[in-house]
Amino acid sequence: MTTTPLTADHLYATGLRGQWHPVVPSSFVAPGAMRKVTVLGEQWLLFRRSDGTLSMLADRCPHRGAPLSLGKHLGDRVACWYHGVEVETDGTVSSVPGLPGCNLEGKQLVVSLPVKEVSGAVLAYFGTEEQPQPVELTLPEPLTDPDTEAILCYAEWNVPWRYAVENLLDPMHGAFLHHDSHTMFDGDTTAKFRIRETDRGYFFEKTDQRGVNFDWVELCRTGVDWVDLSIPYPPSAGPGGPFGIVGMVRPVDAERCAVFFWRYRTVQGWQRDTWRFLYKTLIEKRHWEVLEQDRVMLEAMPADADQRENLYQHDLGVVRLRRLYRGGAEAQATA
């Protein structure tokens, strides 16, 4: 856990609270295993019992503050390596071997976060004093639609989390940074954009081109922040129509983030099997190449890049995003 005061600047740099955030792919925590993870600048322990039940605890023993992630997995609880204090998956101290019956036992002294597993990823709720209980979570439709096949891609980048989200709210970079990719080579390199409000966020879209390149993106705030976008695909990529991406970004700390991209298409039956086969054998490698272009560009940008800019009309989506997050950070800090 962090001891840094939750000022507006700190929240803006490490991520807003009072909402759900993606943590890691579910496969990162096998049954009977533990994993240390940094989220929003804080240290946490993912703990999975042998029956598959997953918990997320603050990585801090309530006795002396030693990392629980260095401890022992005891099936349904974790024992701190330092003095053997045992903590249940809900954060309750179940045993103090050095002094049985002491006043620590039976108390919930370790923070435990609500978690959900969705389409191959772990989501956790990070509350505030005003909103300690989880807010309503509406998941992206492509991750819950039985007629949609979504495949998760996960990576960690040495870049502030906001830069990764801003990159997604900047469709025009597709025509330049990704021009030599297998899908974003076509269409005009000039465009005009507009913001179109929705009941869950907003679209940032080209007014004069659709269905040719990376032409639109929707920011959605439904208990968890995510984006949806679509990129046309040639027939050689198999059945399923346009290729969609659901994207989420996890702040690691002020300088690092983790990105979650679900690549999806609407397919059923044998077409689903065909799409998955083509993706794994042919398309996935190309997608990693596109992601690498984003990573290289963003990691090469200076830390003060957003303080020395000269923006124009194509950046309306980014400006709107910054105002939204800055306003949220100031409201949470004030509260």
From TrEMBL:
EC number of this enzyme: 1.14.13.-
Alphabetic keyword roster: 2Fe-2S, Dioxygenase, Iron, Iron-sulfur, Metal-binding, Oxidoreductase
Output the Gene Ontology terms for molecular function: 2 iron, 2 sulfur cluster binding; dioxygenase activity; metal ion binding; monooxygenase activity; oxidoreductase activity, acting on paired donors, with incorporation or reduction of molecular oxygen
InterPro entries in UniProt: Cholesterol_7-desaturase (IPR050584), Rieske_2Fe-2S (IPR017941), Rieske_2Fe-2S_sf (IPR036922), VanA_C_cat (IPR044043)
Matching entries from PROSITE patterns are given as: RIESKE
Q: Which residues form the Rieske domain?
A: 20-124
Q: What is this protein called?
A: Aromatic ring-hydroxylating dioxygenase subunit alpha
